[in-house]
Design goal:
Elements (H helix, E strand, L loop, with lengths): L8 E3 L33 H7 L4 H9 L7 H9 L3 E6 L5 E5 L5 H7 L17 E5 L4 H15 L8 E7 L4 E7 L5 H13 L8 E6 L24 E3 L2 E4 L2 E4 L3 E4 L2 E7 L13 E3 L9 E7 L18 E2 L3 E6 L5 E7 L4 E2 L16 E7 L8 E6 L3 E16 L4 E9 L5
Parallel strand pairs: 1-19, 3-4, 6-7, 8-17, 15-22, 18-21
Antiparallel strand pairs: 2-3, 5-6, 5-21, 9-10, 11-12, 12-16, 13-14, 14-16, 17-19, 20-21, 21-22
């Protein structure tokens, strides 16, 4: 989202709303998977049967033309400029365009018109474009990321690998390692597998310490006032909701299959990442007068959604979201988010949960399609209040070990997020 001088926020439609193999032959002339009957360490038998006999060269060939919708702008630029390595915003708000060959630097700089790319131009302002040297093309990094996701994020072999992504600012494939298991030996093991089996250049790989997401805390318009914890009507984005014995945040409100709904996180259900008809309260838990909705959709996550089959048959999905049908008698305000009286721009420091009595709402005015590292994001969470920070990761593939799924193409910003 972007805040302008008139209090309006543009909402980034992210799913997080306030929202291995072992014994693999490295040769491209041999199957990546062992025979189903004889292999014991290469993942679930269903996945081995599905891809048994595939060569690494065949897997790469299948993936070369695959494009994620959220990265379409990057691929379009790579089509236009074969040496294109990515683009991001630096600390001064300038577009940094990366090229592996600087011969056509002037032509590229003159040809790229970000105003033609719609909402890729933050806040509707013109920005300086600078061109920098890159080592790898974006399309190659994207291919290597797909391989890393498929082979590292499921199963037990690399249990400590939590995420994979194309890091545009570093022009590398970034592998997130659980900080609790960080060691030189584990970095060496992952590097060896990626370079030997997946045939990914060693210099294209970087590692980052990653910290497991904390569980939601258990205790945390003229009528809008008080705290986001408290009962508010009409309901709108940014309020705290309760379910079972836990708390979460109400995301944006919308319409799904003709029904008035709100979105929350898929892990904020009784059956995380699976439909369970969870009942939600906004106000007092277990008070029938404070029931605001029932979960009607969460998922599905399937093997077919995976960009390429992974090692242990973990299903994939593209969002950590669940859809909740709003109860008929509950007053609600679609298109609005609660506005509190103070934001926090410090890393992991919560903002205010006190609703601004004089100016109590943000208005959702648009959808942000193209998200770049360096863009400013604002979020109102029911537990953490109004927080703000820069986008630091784009299209991250992330493991959810507890639920044995892979979340594909998630976005991250530097702020308190509960």
């Amino acid at each position: 989202m972007f805040v302008n001088t008139s209090k309006t926020i543009q909402l980034l439609c992210l799913s997080l709303i306030f929202i291995l193999f072992t014994n693999c032959d490295s040769s491209t002339t041999q199957p990546v998977f062992q025979n189903v009957e004889t292999g014991t360490d290469t993942g679930g038998p269903a996945c081995k049967a599905m891809v048994s006999g595939l060569l690494m060269s065949e897997i790469k060939e299948d993936l070369e033309n695959f494009r994620r919708d959220s990265e379409s702008h990057m691929h379009e630029l790579n089509d236009l400029f074969p040496d294109f390595g990515g683009v991001f915003l630096d600390e001064d708000g300038r577009y940094n365009v990366l090229l592996t060959d600087m011969t056509d630097k002037a032509r590229v700089k003159a040809s790229i018109n970000f105003s033609d790319m719609g909402k890729m131009r933050p806040e509707g302002t013109d920005r300086e474009v600078i061109v920098r040297q890159a080592e790898y093309r974006f399309r190659d990094l994207a291919l290597w990321r797909e391989l890393a996701t498929a082979f590292l994020l499921a199963g037990n072999k690399f249990y400590y690998v939590l995420s994979t992504q194309v890091h545009e600012a570093e022009n590398r494939v970034a592998i997130g390692i659980d900080a609790n298991y960080w060691s030189e030996q584990k970095l060496t093991d992952v590097t060896s597998f990626m370079t030997t089996t997946l045939e990914i250049p060693k210099n294209s790989i970087i590692f980052e310490k990653e910290f497991n997401e904390a569980e939601e805390e258990e205790d945390m318009f003229d009528e809008l006032n008080g705290d986001t914890f408290e009962r508010q009507r009409p309901i709108l984005g940014g309020l705290r909701i309760r379910y079972a014995s836990s708390n979460c945040s109400m995301g944006f409100l919308g319409v799904f299959n003709g029904e008035e709904v709100f979105v929350t996180n898929g892990h904020c259900t009784k059956n995380a990442h699976g439909s369970s008809s969870t009942m939600y309260f906004q106000g007092e838990r277990d008070n029938s007068n404070d029931v605001v909705g029932i979960e009607i959709a969460d998922g599905p996550q399937t093997l077919e959604m995976c960009v390429t089959p992974n090692s242990d048959c973990w299903p994939c999905r593209w969002s950590d979201s669940a859809i909740v049908a709003i109860s008929e008698d509950v007053e609600h305000a679609r298109g609005y988010i609660a506005k509190t009286d103070r934001k926090s721009e410090e890393w992991m420091v919560e903002g205010s949960r006190q609703i601004d009595g004089k100016d109590p709402v943000f208005t959702i005015v648009d959808l942000q399609d193209d998200i770049l590292i360096g863009m400013k994001l604002h979020k109102v969470g029911g537990n953490s209040g109004w927080t703000s920070g820069d986008v630091i990761r784009t299209c991250v593939d992330s493991r959810r070990t507890r639920h044995e799924i892979i979340l594909q193409c998630q976005y991250r910003a530097r702020y308190a997020s509960s």
